[in-house]
Amino acid sequence: MSGRLVHIGSAVVDYVYRIDALPAPGMEKTASSFAQVAGGGFNMMVAASRTGMQVVFGGQLGSGPNGDFLRAAFMAEGIATLTPPSPLMDSGNCIAMISSDAERTFVSWPGAESILSPDMMKPIAVAPGDWVFTSGYTLSYPKSRDALTDWIEALPDETPFVFDPTPVITDIPRPILSRVLARTTWLSCNTTEAAEIAGPGDVEGLAARLLGDHCPKAAGVVIRAGAKGCHVRLADGSAQTIAGFKVSAIDTNGAGDSHIGAFVSALARGLPPFEAARYANAAAAISVTRHGGSSAPTNREIQTFLSHAADPSDAGRTQKANA
């Protein structure tokens, strides 16, 4: 494994309620279960760490009970924090309601993770071989986006930068989003987020426009499609649609995080991009068979899964498209 994953993101405390269906307006539901867990960017960090990558956190944690809870979760996963606790406030939280069809609905309250300044980021040192990751959540916060964008643009040219725009992409000012995409080495997004950036179209066209018009320095883009798998297009014009694995999902919370973390970890240890994407598909498939957002599997579990799983139908179709 080469280098660390330096995660500049937003970790929060998730309050997870399981319900049969969302309540109608003005009505109430009784949850079948409740859990308090570390969430947000923590889920992606766990996926990378469990698949063999050293992970460090350069975002902000709070100075209250939520921050203490998150620090304990980080310690349990062997993830070091690079910045001191915020003296201003506690970490934020997110209410996650998981319905019986395995879908989820969120309500969040930002805290210390929503504020980053140049002074706060001074302890974050990126070494040769490191990978850097951030998400749209941190860029959506008005008191973080400018400092983080400046910091990303100042990264050494040889440092791979991975970006996930996340569902809050519409909350990121377009000039900020454009600057971050221009420095992105690997973009991982879902089909909705891809269309928000590049406009409507089929996945092949979206991937081509993302690379050609928005991510000029990127090595490639990954467009995730849930249970269907993902589409990967590389800077040389080659592309592959990699089918997902059929599993019985019980909780899709954190599936995208598991996919990104496993994908980056696989790339960092030298796996070719299309193979890394299949590995990430397996990680995501395993994660949705477990409860909780930080349900990413270990490398051993993924390898065992792949050794027993039949190749998905049309495991991938490779094409050479116009650059």
Automatic annotation (TrEMBL):
Show where the Carbohydrate kinase PfkB domain sits. 5-296
Q: Which domain of life is it from?
A: Bacteria
Listed under GO cellular component are: cytosol
* GO MF, one example: kinase activity
Keywords from the named record: Kinase, Transferase
A matching Pfam family? PfkB
Checking SUPFAM superfamilies in the record gives: Ribokinase-like (SSF53613)
**Transit peptide found in the keyword field:** no
Instruction: Give the protein's recorded name.
Output: Sugar/nucleoside kinase (Ribokinase family)
Look up and give the organism this protein is from: Rhizobium loti (Mesorhizobium loti)
Q: According to the entry, what is the taxonomic lineage of the organism? A: Bacteria, Pseudomonadati, Pseudomonadota, Alphaproteobacteria, Hyphomicrobiales
